[in-house]
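Run log, item B.
One chain of 373 residues. Sequence copied directly from the ordering sheet:
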Amino acid sequence: MNAPLPALPSLPALQALTVAELAERIGGGGAAAAAAAARELAAATLRALYLDGAPTIDAMRSLGAARRARLAEVVSFPRLERIAAEPSADGSTRFAFRLHDGALIESVLLPHHAGSQRYTVCVSSQAGCAQACRFCATGKLGLARSLAAWEIVDQVAQVTAHAGVRASDLVFMGMGEPLANEAAVYQAAAVMTQSHGLQIGARRITISTAGVVPAIDRFVAAARPYRLVFSLGSAVAEKRLRLMPIQESFGFDALLESIAAYARLRRGKHVTLEYVAIRDFTMGDDDVAALADLAARARFRFLLNVIPFNPVGDEFAAPTMAEVRAWTAKLRPLGFPVKLRFSGGRDRNAGCGQLGTALLADPQRRSATRRGR
């Protein structure tokens, strides 16, 4: 018989609050001195959490007993349970976390290059995913649930604390579709840009989407400061539909219109389109022709970020790097920049499209993730 799942505290989670929101929770009356004291305590608390890596409120010894007691009255400090931290030969590390309801998620710490002191954290926004992209292991899991803002932030806090590094960049490219969990993703991003916290610049936060058109339009209307990148999959409509069922809901032309609106928000800068290079499927001459047509008719400039397919199941075959280079050489004369993406952590199933592979291979873990539904 399974043990009962732990209940979350009713108080707001500390990791979901900005300095201003935490200061408001601390309160202390309307006097200017009290408000200043509340804000100072809020700032000191976030420094203790994110810069000092305090694992609990009681461990924030620099605050003093009375102020720690006040914090415990107004906020909770739940933590994800880290169940794996697996280093890769290329310097990346795959992390796995168990949520309070038993669902499992994964995150990745990625050095910018060998020996680099700059790191990117790739975070999950959902446990599982409903988009069912055929090139992605997470899509084969189905959706358990969306994450709360604090669960997103705590991934970064724990990953960086464990590694003893600071994240300079953050990418929402882990498990889940970020724009299917907008409120939590934007709140988490706001928290992580705080100067007293993780200190990640808004322009260093990248959100990858499969193409949730209404959410892209809301992003543009709100003029969000973060960066969007768009999963193209393939430029051939029939192939994209096979790879990405989301196209049944939001057609290719509608997606291009939304991307054009985003490009205007970015004042004409290049927009990144993510392209999956799959042997004998998306690397033919017809794919080159489709990309040439896209470049001619798109009302925005784009950079094509080519991602060599990492094996997920046996439906598609992974290309060699030589095959990818030979194919992308055909794209160079078409007038748009092309960049090959290095997929860190492949030997730990942490590369692009691989998150969730460990759960697929372990029926017990897979059922634990599904129980989050």
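Observations after the first pass:
- The first strand starts at residue 81 and ends at 87.
- The first helix runs from residue 19 to 26.
Flagged for discussion on Thursday.
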